[in-house]
Write a structure and sequence with these properties.
Elements: H1 3-11, H2 13-18, H3 22-25, H4 34-45, H5 60-63, E1 81-85, E2 88-92, H6 103-118, H7 127-130, E3 166-168, E4 180-185, H8 201-216
The chain binds flavin-adenine dinucleotide.
C-alpha cells in the first residue's frame, strides 16, 4: 500500500532530505522548493501523466520490486519518566541521553547495513532517520508499542500498580508499601514495565487475564 510513496521517496530522496523548510513537507510551499515539491506531489498523488515509454513500472508491485523492507525491533533503555503536572501528563527525557544514541539503534543499523551488503543491495534508512523535515533533529524514532506508562513495581515506591494491576494506595495513613485501592485495577499495556523486544499483545493479554482472575476468581477458559 506504500508502493508509490516508497518509490517516489526513494527516487527523490536527495531532494527530500535537502528540504530546509519543515513547513514545506507538511504543505506550505516556499519559493525555494515550490517547483520540486509540486512535481513530487503530482507524481505521488498520480496527477501527472506518467510517460509509459520511460516508466518501466506497470504495477504497484513493480514499483518496489527492487526494494526489500526490513522491520527491526529491540529494547530501548527506557530513560524517560512520566509524571503528573496538575492534570497534565508530562514526559521528562534526559537531554544527555537522546533516544537515537542508544545502543540498540546502533546495533540495528549495523546489522541492517551488513544484511543489505550481503544481499547485494544499498542500505537506505528511512528519511526520518536521516533528518527529514519536520523532524527538528536527525534520527527521529517512532514508538509503535508504547509500554510502561503505569508500570508494575514490587512496592509503591517503584511502581503504580502491583503484579495484578491493583493500584497502590499511598494516600491513607498506612506504612504498608503494598497497600492498594480495593477493587481498582489497571488492565492494559501501560502496566508492562518497559519494552519487550517483541510484539506485545500476547503479553498484555496474559497480564490482563492475571488481573481479571485476581478480581473475579479463576476463569474457566
Ligand atoms: C497498526 C498497529 C499494528 C499492531 N500490530 C501488532 C502486532 O502485530 N502484534 C502485537 O503484539 N501488537 C501489535 N500492535 C500493538 C498492540 O495493538 C497494542 O500494544 C495493544 O493493543 C495495546 O493494548 P492496550 O489494552 O494497552 O490498549 P488498546 O488496545 O489501545 O485499548 C485501549 C482501549 O481503551 C479504549 N478507551 C480509550 N479511552 C477511553 C475512555 N475514555 N473510555 C473508555 N474506553 C476508552 C479504547 O477505545 C480501546 O479499546 C499494533 C498496533 C497498531 C496500532
Amino acid at each position: 500500500m506504500f508502493a508509490r510513496i516508497t518509490r517516489t521517496g526513494l527516487d527523490d530522496r536527495k531532494a527530500l532530505l535537502a528540504l530546509k523548510d519543515p513547513a514545506a513537507f507538511v504543505g506550505g510551499e516556499t519559493t525555494s522548493n515550490i517547483g520540486w515539491l509540486g512535481s513530487f506531489k503530482e507524481r505521488l498523488f498520480g496527477k501527472k501523466e506518467r510517460d509509459a515509454s520511460k516508466d518501466r513500472h506497470a504495477t504497484e508491485a513493480e514499483l518496489i520490486d527492487d526494494v526489500f523492507f526490513f522491520n527491526a525491533m529491540g529494547e530501548d533503555e527506557a530513560n524517560g519518566v512520566f509524571s503528573l503536572r496538575g492534570d497534565e501528563l508530562d514526559l521528562d527525557w534526559p537531554a544527555d541521553k537522546p533516544i537515537a544514541n542508544q545502543q540498540c539503534f546502533g546495533k540495528v543499523e549495523e546489522m541492517l547495513q551488513r544484511l543489505s551488503l550481503a544481499m547485494g543491495g544499498t542500505y537506505t534508512p528511512l528519511p526520518t532517520w536521516e533528518g527529514l523535515p519536520p523532524a527538528l533533529d536527525k534520527k527521529t524514532v517512532v514508538v509503535t508499542h508504547p509500554l510502561g506508562g503505569c508500570r508494575i513495581g514490587p512496592t509503591m515506591a517503584e511502581g503504580v500498580v502491583n503484579e495484578f494491576g491493583q493500584i497502590y494506595d499511598g494516600s491513607r495513613k498506612t506504612t504498608d508499601p503494598l497497600a492498594v485501592h480495593p477493587g481498582f485495577f489497571v488492565v492494559d499495556g501501560s502496566v508492562i514495565p518497559g519494552a519487550l523486544a517483541a510484539n506485545p499483545t500476547l503479553t498484555i493479554t496474559a497480564q490482563a487475564l492475571k488481573a481479571i482472575e485476581r478480581a473475579v476468581g479463576p476463569l474457566s477458559l
